[in-house]
Amino acid sequence: MPAAPPPKTLSTRATALVRRIGVPSVVLYAALVFDVLFTTQAALDDHGPRLVDFGLLPGILAMAACGVWAQKRAAVAGVTGGGVLIFSTLFIHAFHIPPYSSVLPKVTITEVVAGVLMVYYVARRARAGVAFCVVGFLVVAGLIAVFGRYSSVADIDGGTGTQALLFGLLLLAGPLVPAIAARDRSPRADPRTRRLHRVNELAMGQWPLMGVLGFALLFEFGYTYSNTVRGFPILFCSIAAAVIAVLSPRRPADALLGLAGIVLLSAVITPFLQLRSYDYPVPGGIPATQIVAGMGVVVNLTRARGLSQSWARVAVLASVVALGAILNSSGHEGLQTDPQVLSVLAFAATLMLGIAIAVGLMLRSRDAQRTQAVQTAVSDAQTAERMALARELHDVVAHHVTGIVVQAQAARMMAEKKPEIAVEAMARIENAGVEALAAMRRLVRSMRGDAPAGMSEFSEQATTDLGADLRKLVESANHGVPTSMHLDLPPDLPHEVGRSALRLVQESLTNVGKHASGATEAFVVAEVVGDQLHLRVTDNGRETAHRPAGGSGGYGLVGMRERVALLKGRLSAGRDPDGGWRVEAWLPLAAGEDTEGDE
């Protein structure tokens, strides 16, 4: 008789519930319950205005939701949580809601717990650049919440500020250390990570500008809180300028015109806000954040297009800055007309503009040098390959053909005298012809790039079905690493694109077997996105410490780049931030038709 199941006591049910929803969520819900009870009690007591404390609940509930959301979409939830902290602080400051303190001054327990969870999940799951940006934004939002919920800066004593910074540093380091140690290393198949990859590239290239803009915004935000809410329109213009500056590498020319419009709007509305009566800091008539953003956009524009194609837009921005200086640099109401002051401002503006242009041109020169170096390396590799083919042609094919000619001449001369010798010569000619034909085939494969050195003899000729070819390639497992796939391919893929794609994946998997030490999994993605074929091959191995068996010719990546360049596509290869190696290519589908037509 089977034993009766154990009774479901309150303890076992609680344990099962905790396991199902997770310990982090349980801690967050407990903090939420405490804050709701505490806020309700504070709102209904006789201290201060009744019900006003309920104004804390929207921010508390929103932060709790972001903390739960972070377990699924860490980066998006982190950005949303930082925005919730900032707008909650604005709401508290505008309606004079009395916040209470927990571990951090003026920050509720739910906000602290949710912030810690978001930092942990972002640092663990997001790419390095994305994690840096999101965690930095959460830190800035936390500082705004701590110091922005005081009525004024005078209310913050030194001990409170030091304690807040110390505890904040501990709360930041606490989740970061285990999150970095437990970062996910598995290959990702979700196509949505493609957008995060672009954000990661943007962040890694723009992090100095983002850091300076973050500090400028923080000081501008603090000064706005300390003096008057009249400065909030200017603050919002500065935030918009900072966003445009960070995104400017995508479309630098349009970004500069957009920034000029933001600066013009800020300069025009500043006199109507009467900020001079409150000594609002606008050095030279332009807020510091907008100055930094302007320099950043000028750097990115001159880097992308050079000075000859950028001077007209730069002149537009300079004109707007000059207008702002005339309108807002005076210490009293009215325009700035002092020639001495205007000359000093013009000199300072010219100096900063010159620095930005010089930095942009320096980066442009460095980019050109890198491009030239890559082109030189490709040209050298092509020359070396042609020399190798010439040696192969001379040493192998010419040798066999010469033997055929000599034996044919001997057979012709001896045919009448000794026919049996001619028959023997014919057999030798046949063997030499077979060897010559095999050598010619190897040479043709090498010239076409269909069988680079180190690759197997699998599928020397690609079929018209790329999906079937890739499945056959993976099922053969010649590279020795278990491989999974995600394929989303149409049946009418151009043959040239499909053949090149097969060779790219084939070479990538071969490199996995040769170079990915300790790899236990590889992942192949082949999908059509818009008018491009997207390929990605990743593994979870580590860089080998010794030379692979048989050596490495060093032409694998060069050959892949040549293939992609012929189709006017893009290729990236390097260490994956999550570990292992990543090869990613984008091949325009129309390029395959043009290439076939050219042939």
Automatic annotation (TrEMBL):
The keyword ATP-binding applies. Residues 502-590 form the Histidine kinase/HSP90-like ATPase domain. Keywords: ATP-binding, Kinase, Membrane, Nucleotide-binding, Phosphoprotein, Transferase, Transmembrane, Transmembrane helix, Two-component regulatory system. It is an enzyme of class 2 (transferase). The chain crosses the membrane at residues 21-44, 50-69, 76-97, 103-123, 130-150, 162-181, 202-225, 231-248, 255-274, 280-299, 311-329, 341-363. CDD domains: HATPase_UhpB-NarQ-NarX-like. Its EC number is 2.7.13.3. It holds the Pfam family HisKA_3. Residues 385-449 form the Signal transduction histidine kinase subgroup 3 dimerisation and phosphoacceptor domain. This is histidine kinase. It comes from Amycolatopsis plumensis.
